[in-house]
């Protein structure tokens, strides 16, 4: 057993509720704090001097200087396994080009698909680990990582196998998610519904057999998949034993309702969510995940985080780090900007990046 400290301040977030608005005076702040660990498990927190009296035989790990300790962050929505870059997309957006115009010019998600398909597993692993190391440097130790830039059987499996290999080389906890339903690839000979059936019949059985992911995501939007075919897909994936999450209400409203109705752990984006759907989400167990990086990258409105919290929703905050719409990847900066524009308290931001974000991943043992 080891006591680490003394920290100038120790912020535990103990006792904060899972949902709804928070005030800063609800945060527990322990001055001259200490942390008691047994192996990798935290078994106690409190005043450093008092902990030394309670655990006289514990080893001491002394902290020098002014240090503040708080729970590690959780990034519950990323796309950090990808090949190439889409810097030109950013320049084209700033020149006034629309999402569809950029895609028609060879940019957009399809550009990342082509680069990712062309990359070797070793190349993907190298850049993925570099991005993971950057997130760790920000204090993020649990990271969701999506596929979705393969969009065929072998390329999706390559991405998910790369994520599995990365887990062997990092102390961070990686949570893989299959996002083969990102959009229908241009080289697929069939309709959107036929492509979703291809995922259900060909990709997801292999993902499950190789134990590469237990979560499935889909992008419901005019430029991706329509609501009703998405609902059918999600329900069938759920029957196969997958946890669900949804890219919802990014540009048009309505798909967050589907996320709630199928029992998704989270509905992510929500920039276009209207007041009626805010109430619907708030009355559910589905986590509302704000992705301020996408709003910054696209120059679009932010998720209505203040309204969601005031309605009683569970609000998580994640980076959406991806090569196109949110290429910066700095969750802390993004959350700070979201707080400024949505008038969030420090408690709400910290909760959104820790235990509430963990809950979006079905994890209640961290944050």
Describe the structure.
This protein has 367 residues and is of the alpha/beta class. The chain has 2 domains: 68 residues, Urease, subunit C, domain 1, CATH 2.30.40.10; 288 residues, Metal-dependent hydrolases (TIM Barrel, Alpha-Beta Barrel), CATH 3.20.20. It is 41% helix and 20% strand. A hairpin with a 2-residue loop joins strand 2 and strand 3. The longest helix has 18 residues. The chain starts with a strand and ends in a 7-residue tail after the last helix.
Which helices and strands, and how do they pair?
Blueprint: E1 2-11, E2 29-38, E3 41-47, H1 48-54, E4 59-62, E5 68-69, E6 73-75, H2 87-94, H3 99-104, H4 108-118, H5 121-137, E7 140-146, H6 153-167, E8 173-181, H7 192-209, E9 215-219, H8 227-239, E10 243-248, H9 255-261, E11 266-269, H10 275-282, E12 287-290, H11 292-298, H12 305-311, E13 315-317, H13 331-342, H14 346-352, H15 355-360
Parallel strand pairs: 1-4, 1-5, 6-7, 7-8, 8-9, 9-10, 10-11, 11-12, 12-13
Antiparallel strand pairs: 1-2, 2-3
Helix pairs in contact: 5-6, 6-7, 7-8, 10-12
